[in-house]
Amino acid sequence: MPAKNQERRRLKDKELENIKKDLLERKRQLWDEISDDIDEDVREEHHGLIQMAKDGGDRGLAELRESTIFSLIELKVEEIETIEDALQRIEVGKYGRCRDCSRWIRPARLQVRPYAVRCRSCQEKQEKIERI
Ligand SMILES: [Zn+2]
User: Fold this and answer.
1) Ligand 1 centre and the CA of 106: distance in Å?
2) Same domain as 89, residue 31
């Protein structure tokens, strides 16, 4: 019999709440790091853009992607987009469901990889395809 934390099941409200809190916290931290990464002059110049991306979700992020400072902060912006995507899935109730097989992803997996969009077996299949 599989151990309890191996079960596929819906996250409890409390678990989902904690994951959401962690995601928001991580997002805030990334924005702080982005501010630190950009020197003051450039920050001043792009202040409006960064503020819009910070407040405005997808549209702001899209504009930030177009800008010249993007390459400096690319990895962090991409992580923020991944977080936005996870938060969006929480909002619409899709969080924790595998994108491919629609079964629940094990909560133990989500605790370690809160951005996971697939269960482990589908993820492994996907990685095999990508390697070909
Ligand atoms: Zn799956």
Assistant:
1) 10
2) yes
Among 49-53, 69-73, 114-118, the range of highest mean pLDDT: 114-118
- Can you give the residue range of the structural domain that contains 14? 10-95
Residue with tokens 């095999």: 128
Q: Measure 105 CA to ligand 1 centroid, in angstroms.
A: 7
Token pair belonging to 127: 């990685």
Ligand 1 centroid to 48 CA: how many Å? 41
Write the DSSP symbol of residue 5: G
| Confidence (pLDDT) at 5 | 57
Mean pLDDT on 116-130: 95
Ligand 1 being an ion, which residues bring their Cβ within 5 A of it? 98, 100-101, 119, 122
- Cα–Cα distance, 130 to 54 (Å, whole number): 32
Q: Tokens 């992803």 belong to which residue?
A: 105
Distance CA 101, CA 104 (A): 9
The answer to the question of residue 39 being in a domain is yes
